[in-house]
Design the sequence.
């Protein structure tokens, strides 16, 4: 390239735009590089080169001391648009210029620098510097061309922001992210894998994904990560071994990757979510549910749970057995009001004619209470005790107890009581009657024995007769006392006995009784 003509343009760090103009380039200058083709070719080149350089993008030639030797119209326009550019368009400082000269002298064909000319306007340029040599091959100046890369810089910024965002998401997400090539060899693993599997990403990159990820519960024909079918999938269960040897359960989702321009299959990209705790919790919940169901099924009473909207959640077979005619209507989701109407329509509950609506309204009223208990007679003759209890969340727990046997025992007990009361009244009446019948002859015995004991009509003769007649009198008195006691018992049972409190001599009572039971006591 011909040597540029020197001009009085500002050097590096010079005063703004002063002296910057579109300066001519002379085709033949002293020290210019020799070219083949003779004088005609040189003349022709001398004619074309200035016009070509003038119409290029921003271009300048800088001496090794930092002075601008040449600047085309594009560079002049660039200086006009951005104040203070002259000091920044060539090397920004003597140090930067020295670095560029050193790189060119070291053999660099060109040196590229990116310059942010106006950061507040998001304007960026790429400066490409090359060395200009004299005929002896000595570096005598630096050429610089400038391209507007604002769009590229903005795109790179957006890409950088997107990359940062993606990196943050992959670090913060509970899933770990992976990519494979066409052979299902891992080419990328996010750092999250170290938290869930204990491996560093570098330890997994280069390994086949299927070496440590075992898909479970799938048919061979439905194998995921198939490079042939290349189908996306979501939440497929797979087990993976943790560094400590324990097995972890994951849900894997993946999409096939294709080249944007050629459509060539590149591999798979996907995520893996650790669901070990959720699976364990779900398994425990299933076991607890099974245990609860078995426990509810094993209780002797009918059990039912209704949600706050009064829809059936669950019940055991004994609850359905209490209402055999509508057992097929007792299903989860059925409303309680529909259940009661079905009972009435089927005639399952004994309700007097014309009182069905009233009974139904009263039943719903009782349903609104937090706790209620009552008995219902069924059409098959059985009795059911209804107990409802509302829980804190508004649900209703219902217990249905078959109390038919209890009712039968109550009826039998009531009948026995009635019979016993009738027998007791009959006994009392009998004792009262028989007591009156016994008192008449007994009074005669007492009267005659007393006359004989007092010898009112003459002496009895033998002293033993006097003793015997005394025993007859005392025995008759004792028997009369017993009869009076029996009458008192009858009065007591009839509720007509009046007590008369008085002092008695216990000794006389005991002696009187001893004479009667003496012989029996002696034999005993």
Sequence:
């Amino acid at each position: 390239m011909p040597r540029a003509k020197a001009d009085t343009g500002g050097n590096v760090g010079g005063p703004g735009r002063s002296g910057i103009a579109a300066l001519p380039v002379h085709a033949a200058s002293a020290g210019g590089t020799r070219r083949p083709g003779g004088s005609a070719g040189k003349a022709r080149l001398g004619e074309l080169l200035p016009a070509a350089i003038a119409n290029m993008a921003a271009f300048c030639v800088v001496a090794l001391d930092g002075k601008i030797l040449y600047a085309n119209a594009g560079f002049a326009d660039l200086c006009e648009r951005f104040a203070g550019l002259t000091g920044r368009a060539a090397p920004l400082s003597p140090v930067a210029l020295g670095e560029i000269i050193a790189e060119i002298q070291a053999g660099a064909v060109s040196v590229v620098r990116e310059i942010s000319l106006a950061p507040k306007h998001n304007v960026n340029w790429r400066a490409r510097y090359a060395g200009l040599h004299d005929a002896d091959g000595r570096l005598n100046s630096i050429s610089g061309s400038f391209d507007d890369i604002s769009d590229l810089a903005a795109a790179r910024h957006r890409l950088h922001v997107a990359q940062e965002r993606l990196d943050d998401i992959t670090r913060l997400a509970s899933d770990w992210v992976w990519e494979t090539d066409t052979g299902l060899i891992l080419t990328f693993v996010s750092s999250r894998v170290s938290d869930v599997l204990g491996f560093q990403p570098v330890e997994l990159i280069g390994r086949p994904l299927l070496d440590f990820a075992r898909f479970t519960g799938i048919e061979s024909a439905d194998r995921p990560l198939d490079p042939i079918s290349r189908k996306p999938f979501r939440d497929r269960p797979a087990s993976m071994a943790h560094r400590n040897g324990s097995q972890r359960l994951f849900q894997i989702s993946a999409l096939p990757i294709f080249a944007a321009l050629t459509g060539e299959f590149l591999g798979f990209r996907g995520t893996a979510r650790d669901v070990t705790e959720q699976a364990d919790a779900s398994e425990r919940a299933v076991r607890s549910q099974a245990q609860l169901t078995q426990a509810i099924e094993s209780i002797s009473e009918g059990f039912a749970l209704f949600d706050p909207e009064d829809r059936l959640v669950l019940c055991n077979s004994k609850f359905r057995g209490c209402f055999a005619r509508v057992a097929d209507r007792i299903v989860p989701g059925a409303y309680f009001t529909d259940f009661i109407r079905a009972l009435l329509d089927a005639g399952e509950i004994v309700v007097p004619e014309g009182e069905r609506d009233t009974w139904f309204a009263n039943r719903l009223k009782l349903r609104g209470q937090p706790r209620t208990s009552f008995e219902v007679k069924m059409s098959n003759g059985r009795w059911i005790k209804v107990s409802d209890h509302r829980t804190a969340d508004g649900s209703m727990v219902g217990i249905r107890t078959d109390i038919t046997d209890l009712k039968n025992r109550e009826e039998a007990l009531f009948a026995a009581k009635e019979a016993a009361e009738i027998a007791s009244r009959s006994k009392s009446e009998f004792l009262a009657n028989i007591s009156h019948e016994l008192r008449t002859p007994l009074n005669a015995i007492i009267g005659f024995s007393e006359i004989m004991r007092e010898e009112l009509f003459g002496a009895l003769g033998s002293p033993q007769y006097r003793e015997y007649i005394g025993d007859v009198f005392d025995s008759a008195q004792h028997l009369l006392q017993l009869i009076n006691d029996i009458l008192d018992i009858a009065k007591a049972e009839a509720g007509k006995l009046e007590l008369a409190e008085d002092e008695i001599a216990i000794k006389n009572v005991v002696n009187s009784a001893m004479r009667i039971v003496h012989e029996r006591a002696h034999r005993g």
